[in-house]
Amino acid sequence: MTLSVSAYAFTVPSMADVTAQRQAAEQAQEAQAVQAASAEATEVALTERRAAVVQVADSVAARAQVAKETASAAALTAEVVAPLDEAVAELGELLELARAESAVSPVSAPEPAATGPAAPLPQSAPSPTEGAAEPAPEPLPSDAPTASPTPSASPSEKAIVTTEVPATVAGVDVPQGPEDATTARLREAVEKVAQASAQVVLVAEANSAAVEVAAGVQAAAAAESERAAAEAARVAAEQAATRAAWRTSLDKYSNGQVPESALCDVAFDPSHELRCDAAQQLEQLDAAYVDAFGVHITISDSYRSLAGQYACTRTKGSLCAAPGTSNHGLGTAVDLGGGIQTFGTRQHRWLVANADEYGWTLPDWARATGSKPEAWHWEYVG
Fold this sequence. Notes:
- It is a single chain.
- By secondary structure, the chain is an alpha+beta fold.
- Helices cover 52% and strands 11% of the residues.
- It has two domains: 16-115 and 154-210, no CATH class; 260-380, Muramoyl-pentapeptide Carboxypeptidase, domain 2.
- The longest helix has 69 residues, at 181-249.
- One of its GO terms (molecular function) is carboxypeptidase activity.
- Keywords: Carboxypeptidase, Hydrolase, Protease.
């Protein structure tokens, strides 16, 4: 409706226009309030999600420290622990970043939009002053645009990278909700540290188990070695006692009058007999001789009875000791052949070099420089 007063014309809005304008203003205010509430809820969800992930990160960092201590105790190499060290360093940087961002941008509720009624419309136009210049007519509310302004996105909404987030982080339940870029990176770093810690602990436990097994094997080997040593000592003591008994076993018999039952056969040549300890040591000497030459020692004479000593004197004269004085009559002397009976042969030189180890020797008088050289005559002095 248009009214004309003197030289001026005014357009007066209708009631329908006024009502429409008020409804549009109220709707815009309601939309702003809904948007503000949504932004606040999103900010709260982002903050709760980040706080939960930070809490899990602190716990996982503590577990990582325990894993490092376990690795140190298990003497793991730096190469094995390096992935965990790198993951922990990255997690530490992201924790600092997350806390710094939270300190700078705490959650705060946005100021509420005005919800009161729209400003009242003008009821009348001012009266013109005669002679004054025509004032420009003030725009009515209907002249202003009625479209609701498009609000800009909140910082939180811009920062959201995903709403599809896992319900657990490193096996711990966390609030569901959107994540910003920093929280997402922090969550990934937490998972990486948790996995690296688990791997280090697994390797450390495996190493510890292997060490325990090795220690058990070593202990068992040591125990077996001790048992074997004790057994060897026992056997050696028994053998020494036996040899000591054998050494004196013929003392009660006169030279050349030892019964056959008191003597022992030589194992590699049973046709010969000696005092038992002399026979045993000659057998060991023979084993070494076989290793060197591939054949047994040749024995031409061993125990010689008193009658045998007389016979030797009759047939060999001064080559034989006076009857009743020969070491053959005590079962502790042998005459050898097979090359040993000749000075300078390989066999003789070998025996000279090795016989003493087994208690056998070539007497000084029987050596090449002795008073009565007899390369074949060997006596047991063990």
